[in-house]
Amino acid sequence: MGLIVQKYGGSSVADAESIKRVAKRITEARRAGDDVVVVVSAMGDTTDELIDLANDITPLPPSREMDILLTAGERISMSLLAMAIANLGVEAQSFTGQQAGVITDDSHGRARIIDVKASRIRQALDAGNVAIVAGFQGVTEHTNDVTTLGRGGSDTTAVALAAALDADVCEIYTDVDGVFTADPRIVPSARKLDRVTYEEMLDLAASGAKVLMLRCVEYARRNEVTIHVRSSFSGREGTLVTDEPAVAEGEGHMEQPIISGVAHDRSEAKVTVVGVPDVPGTAAQIFETVAAAEVNIDMIVQNVSVAQTGLTDISFTLPAVDGPRATAALKAVQEQVGFESLQFDDTIGKLSLVGAGMKSHPGVSARLFAALRDAGINIEMISTSEIRVSVVTRADQLDDAVRAVHTAFGLDSSEGEAVVYGGTGR
Ligand code: ASP
Ligand code: MG
Hints:
Blueprint: E1 3-8, H1 16-31, E2 35-40, H2 46-57, H3 63-87, E3 92-95, E4 102-104, E5 113-116, H4 119-126, E6 130-134, E7 137-140, E8 146-148, H5 154-164, E9 169-174, E10 195-197, H6 198-206, H7 214-223, E11 227-231, E12 239-242, E13 248-249, E14 254-255, E15 261-265, E16 268-277, H8 282-292, E17 300-302, E18 311-319, H9 323-332, H10 334-337, E19 341-345, E20 348-354, H11 364-374, E21 381-385, E22 388-394, H12 398-408
Parallel strand pairs: 1-2, 1-9, 2-6, 3-6, 4-7, 9-11, 10-12
Antiparallel strand pairs: 4-5, 7-8, 11-12, 13-14, 15-20, 16-18, 16-19, 17-18, 20-22, 21-22
The chain binds aspartic acid and magnesium ion.
Aspartic acid binds at residues 9-10, 41-42, 47, 73, 135-136, 151-154.
């Protein structure tokens, strides 16, 4: 007998039928003898619809009210799921993030979990109940304000509860069979990974792979929580995210695969600061300004300055939603820094090739660039880490780029197409 945490995403509880189906799976786990804690997301596209609704009321909803609004989505799914489980003869109780003891900092819309006081959940389990917890939400320590953890935050709730309760495994149920070598919605020949390390999963998530939220992977690595990503629509084994690297059949020996996957990201934009005086200190001024606006940047490229003018261009990428804030802050210091103009481009896409094995294999970038060349795709920016190479392309060429690179690295599956069971991918 053990303790498992199961998390069901929005597409797994999209309607009454789905909720009943998930309830059945939960009761099976419970009847097998395990203690079960379930974390649930809002039904289907509820969160998006609530955001749209708020935006119909005002262009700038106060973040505190936004959080109260959005947490309503998970309250609906948690209570319905508890009813569905009770209907199958298993006792279940649902809890909001606050009731479950999820304590966060006070950054509305992107709060961080600072503690989980899980005594109430423990009590529910000890009394023989399945505990259902609303994902993606918590409460501030001192003011008792309701917070949300950022889009996709239910994964983090699940991992945090698994850590607090010392669960054997945290199962993340989604609408695909696990972590794939690329998004199966774009690359139907993508292959399911049996195992992926925290390190690789962090880079995949940071590079736009949506199957797990970045913070959830960070949390899992820090607390050594084993994650099992799998589908609620099939009985298949999914992908384990752990410390131990996968092994692939090498030439006569077992070796780590070079590449674990190709991630893509459409959510970034590019800012170019044109005509920057090429003297010490200007880059610092520019990026201090962006940092003061609380914008996280990703890639940076500075061109060689033209000798006659002594001016250079600096481009960087950032989340597209932060574009207006960053450019407004930069405009305000234009005279002081002395640059000529600003360009904003939100029609870019980013492709990232990730794999721990690339540390020790030459030629990975060369093969990547050759694949893009053969597909006629222009590269606008490049950045690398030890286990990742990322490039920026035109947004409308991104899908082709992902497919070309996936094939070039021999990642295509020979076992037919990956199944996407549900969800709109919204
Ligand atoms: N319902 C929230 C969202 O869609 C949280 C989650 O699904 O994890 O972002
Ligand atoms: Mg969702």
